[in-house]
């Protein structure tokens, strides 16, 4: 089932084009990464998906239903963790969760909040004003999950958090996906996308650059070679590396180049020479992301 579908979605703020001609499709049970730098249009897209901002043009469908008009029924099926958490600081974490539960017509004890708080090491008895940024993010995530939404939308969920808290949040998100939840994950932290997401959409200046599986982005046929020969000669021409790679960088005796294809033919040529060190790696998501952005600037 398609959970999120947008067709030629655009949003103008005055004369500024925030989102332009954006078409996305997110399937049930998927963790979908939505990546781009600050100002790329990620938060504006999320506001439109949440029916908090009206598109200038285009169409949105949620759970197979038209979402052109605000719908309380659709919103109840969605959980949302904003990039900036604003909470009533005089309450304890428990009081804040109880208020959220009542808003959804739930009894707090029927939810999984205790297990989630324990997993995140969150003390719900303390007042929110004493919470660190990390603890506020933890509480916000638990609040967004109270009503067991079918779709969870997260806007920069780990920004400003230390690595330990980031790992705990991501572990909890993985559990939700295993239970059947669909996650739409907006971030500019590419390592999180690589660990968590199934597919990723790259956005730049409000326009979609590329949609690809994470496995294809970080894998595929591209390989990065770093070779140190027994001598310091530049063997680029001798090896015929221009047949495989667009550019070879030779620095401090190390040849570095990237090929789009199987590594076998290159390894055969390298085998003719005495090699002191050799590494063959797949590009990281960050390298793929930066390559697409540079191509988009041309």
UniProtKB/TrEMBL annotation:
The UniProt entry, under SUPFAM superfamilies, shows:
P-loop containing nucleoside triphosphate hydrolases
The answer, when asked if Membrane is one of the entry's keywords, is no
Q: Name one Pfam family in it.
A: ABC_tran
Question: Keywords in UniProt for this one?
Answer: ATP-binding, Nucleotide-binding, Transport
Q: Which residues form a coiled coil?
A: none
Q: Which SMART domains match?
A: AAA
Q: Which domain of life is it from?
A: Bacteria
Per its record, how is this protein called by name?
A: ABC transporter ATP-binding protein
- Give the ABC transporter domain ranges: 4-230
- Molecular function (GO) terms listed? ATP binding
Enumerate the Gene3D superfamilies for this protein: P-loop containing nucleotide triphosphate hydrolases (3.40.50.300)
In which organism is this protein found? Answer: Saccharibacillus kuerlensis
